Amino acid sequence: MSINEWYILDLQFTQSKSYSCFLNSLLKSIKPVPNSLFGACDPLGVQLLTRLRVGLSHLKVHKFNHGFNDTIDPMCACNTEIESVFHFYLRCPFYINQRFNLMNDLSNLGIDTTPSMFMINLLLYGDKSFCNELNLKILQLSIQYIKDTKRFDGPLL
């Protein structure tokens, strides 16, 4: 069976000059590309941002999806909709002041602040079409928003 697998591999693998070259090529093809933090140096902020990225944060939808005992439904405490990342960043009435500051700061950087999934991806990951310096500023603003809301204070039970 493994010989059959060898023959369906791409030529870049089968024509490797050595075992280590083969292994490196194979690992590069299957390992996910890490999402950059663009040099953000805020351990707690990076941890909170990463939790949002991977879907294991204090947000009710994340806790509900992972079966936390203290979360019987994914609805936000504001009772308007599910407490998703989109809701947290762009809609929850509890964080209107923090959101105003975030959107104002992003607008000052020349960023379109129209609420959308693009905006969520930008706040979580930055944008490859932007320079690293701008991406760092965006992630720093995103982290500042997370901290200012105090939504993630306390342990993740």
Give the SSE map.
Blueprint: H1 2-8, H2 11-14, H3 19-30, H4 43-54, H5 60-65, H6 85-90, H7 96-108, H8 117-125, H9 132-149
Considering the chains and any ligands shown, give keywords for the structure:
single chain; 157 residues; mainly alpha; 0% strand
Account of the protein in words:
This protein has helices at residues 2-8, 11-14, 19-30, 43-54, 60-65, 85-90, 96-108, 117-125, 132-149. It is built from nine helices and no strands. The longest helix is centred in the C-terminal third of the chain and has 18 residues, at 132-149. The mean pLDDT is 91. Helix 4 (43-54) packs across helix 9. The chain is mainly alpha-helical and 157 residues long. The termini are far apart.
Task: Give a nutshell description of this structure.
This protein is an all-alpha fold and 157 residues long. It contains 9 helices and no strands. The chain starts with a helix and ends in an 8-residue tail after the last helix.
Count the DSSP helices: 9
Give the uncertain stretches in residue-range form. Answer: none
Task: Evaluate the radius of gyration.
Answer: 20 Å
Helix content: 55-70%
Gap from first CA to last CA:
46 Å
Structural class computed from helices and strand pairing: mainly alpha
In total, the number of strands is 0
The proportion of residues in beta strands is under 5%
